[in-house]
Fold this protein.
Amino acid sequence: MPILSFAWLALLFSVPLWMADLYVLHVLIVTGIFIIAAMSLNLLLGYTGQLSLGHVAFFGIGAYVSSLVSLGCQVHLLPHWQVSLAAQPVWVGMLSGVAAAGLSGFLIGKIAFKVRGAYFVIVTVSFAEVVHLVALNWVELTQGPMALNNIRPLTLSIPFLVDISFARKPASYYLVLTVALVAYVLIRRLVRSRAGRAMVALRENEPLAASVGVDVTRYLVLATVLSAAIAGAAGVLYAHYVRIVDPDIFLFIYTVIMVIMVISGGKGTLAGPIVGGLIFGLLPEVLRAFAIKPEVQWVIYGVLMVLIVYFLPEGIVPAARSAWLALARPAAWRNAPRLMR
Amino acid sequence: MTGAPAELAVDGLTVRFGGLTALDAVAFEVRAGEVLSLIGPNGAGKTSAFNAITGYIVPAAGEIRYRGTRLNGLKPSAVAALGLVRTFQKTSVFAGQTVHDNVLIGAHLRSRQRPLAILSGLPSVAREERELRQCARDILDFVGLSARSAEIAAALPYGELRLLEVAIALAARPRLLLLDEPVSGMNPVETRSFMGLLARIREQSVAVLLVEHDMNMVMGVSDRIVCLNHGRIIASGAPAEIQSNPDVIRAYLGERFMRRR
């Protein structure tokens, strides 16, 4: 349905043109960043079936590395041996952030190469906690709880051609939207290829997958690297948008929010994290707009979450799809494909 | 067939689980294009032999060679890449996927896509995907599951699930197919049609190592039979020899069979 896709794209790209309220734009930007992170989590949770409950670590590593490279930094590795890095252009920092997150994803994938299920969860949670402690205590590098301040926004300038600063909200919106689209396209290509099938095979039946020659570990590592790099990209965007990064970026609640977005939207579907991300990203703001007290907001948030998980255990997108199929082709409904594509 | 060279050579294969010796210095070979059956009572070590050959368990001793390549210590996926593809005793499919996608996953080894090519969306990837889909359709045709192509695997009746398992294995382009009790749970009509399928698989010059309890099928399709009992080979030879071997009859076919003769 290319027409529908174009309509969606036109809508998304036109938002800053008709939306004058900068606060709404801010909410959309932050939601968009979380949707990117949720999409990356979905690649692991939805397709390989492995729950990365420390996913925020990749997000935070992206944010910290990008900030540090763009600000420059100095550390004493040994008492008399000081390493310093001069401030680099922001785009160099951003690429370093994505690369560092991808690299840490590679390490986690390698360490976790034989662990599945609960053990994978433990490895990822521990990793996130370790990174959090490093960010908190390596004050010389990260400023610890004092936070990294004055992080510059991205500016792109090619002499006489372009000179864009992403300091303002509409520009930031376009930046986040572009990264989100790139991430979506990459994930879509991956899951619709032999690599994506290998990941689904790992989720559904690992011994059988190995019996037909799927090198399961290899594809789990590939999924972890790409997932971590995309989560890192989300963190990079976050750092240069909010322009301050402190160790609270590694809070467990952020991982939980990503998981909620993926599960409620529908894990293992391309649209799931986007739908879930829009609902749970925008919901607090919508509730606030109705002047509902914060305590009540969170109650509504929680109740809605329970209702979705209870009534639509597969998530919103698969439920909507089978409802649509039931309307369109009642006979084919019972045997309709559930997940994938 | 007896003159054909050995493709798979198993020598001195020993498998232990703690204090239990599941296989004790077992030696046999599978020759090019033949159907070799492993029979024996439950617990004789047939499935352990399968698991050891295909890399799912590590043997305590012995050597497994396929066309000169040592298989000991290889991962299951590496064994499959050499052309040895197995099925499982317990029904094993990708339950949540469509029948067609099950076979498509099975076709993993036919595919040459590299991660970077996939991520950059090269046209060669799309072309190969079309070829793989056609190939999956051909395989479903071959085993007779075309009509079920769009259904979720979990929704198939038992007999068709077993066919799907074979289809998944065939998609991996085996040169030696290892079937672990493929007709268990099938009715006689389904078994007969499965024997027809097996004959057509042989025509593709695929050798078959078969573990099966259904004696009609074993006697009907096998070129040679190896009979195991308590982890040891007690007899091997052509079906007629096995049927008349007193050890085999005592250990496996039972007294009733003996009286009937």
Remarks:
- Chain B has two domains: 1-83+174-261, 92-173.
